[in-house]
């Protein structure tokens, strides 16, 4: 809970329950009775290594376990700014951890618990003391932070590189599995060698530095079958999001499912994959064709290819909420990578619905082949700023079509569908 609950929702009861477990401070956890003079060293060491949590206001015993009752640290206004100022004045490049302040009264005295949640940094190594010293976190209680040697710095960078390679590997495996489905995976529905239509959208989110499975495949399948993970699809293309028309399929590390929408001789696959290391990937065809060749599913040369922005808005919005629910269940924390790809969009144009949404009569056409958007954010930013993330991504997508969709239209559509 200390590691995964939204930091602004932490309460004194949560700290009390955590301390009652008697968890020793160590590689990813540090207790401090009062504001430490070496806070910059502790924070930078966590960021340089594997991340961690500092809890100020908790006294520890000789074994490194928290002492009860909780005494707290002296409360003063702007404790969060105090932490930020220490970072900005002492750590280079700066780190921006999650900071939670839990104020309470103890015998009419104002007290506080300060929780500082530090993610493993993609900008490491971080130095202190005028950029002279780089610290790493250790398991040695007598020397929990030590100056990193050149070999250790190289090891840290290699370790980060391996996590990044693992992240890209599980993503590429998912993409290859999707490609295989287009090739011959839809035979049970009578389809094979389906050409990928224009406007293929692939949305994914994963930990920036995955390390090990966060959930077993069996548990993951049960989670995918749990209706608490699903959301009503207000766009109307699917009954729910995710939408499974079959029992989810397990692989060695993932649970996958797909749904086919077949009409007018066309086949539009929807694909979902949830990975035990935290990857969630969704594929949908956002491009639409005005004409179809019913015999072989190949588009006519003169077909008009269009894209509906409210389709992207709705399913990107739903994707982000399902991702948050997924991460709440499996206990992810730290930095996240969101990736949106729109393939084969050259000459794809914005579809103008019969409404007041699109006020311009101009035709908006894409003059690029592929669109890729990547965002690196903290879990806290993801939870607190989902709407801003959605707006920013839609703005980038619309600019690829020489068009400014605008925040007001996004909000109007979301309000109409009771999402705001």
UniProtKB/TrEMBL annotation:
Pfam families associated with the record: SLFN_AlbA_2
Schlafen AlbA-2 domain segment(s): 28-144
Recorded superkingdom: Bacteria
Name of the molecule in the record: Schlafen AlbA-2 domain-containing protein
Residues in coiled coil: none
Matches recorded under InterPro entries: Schlafen_AlbA_2_dom, Schlafen_AlbA_2_dom_sf
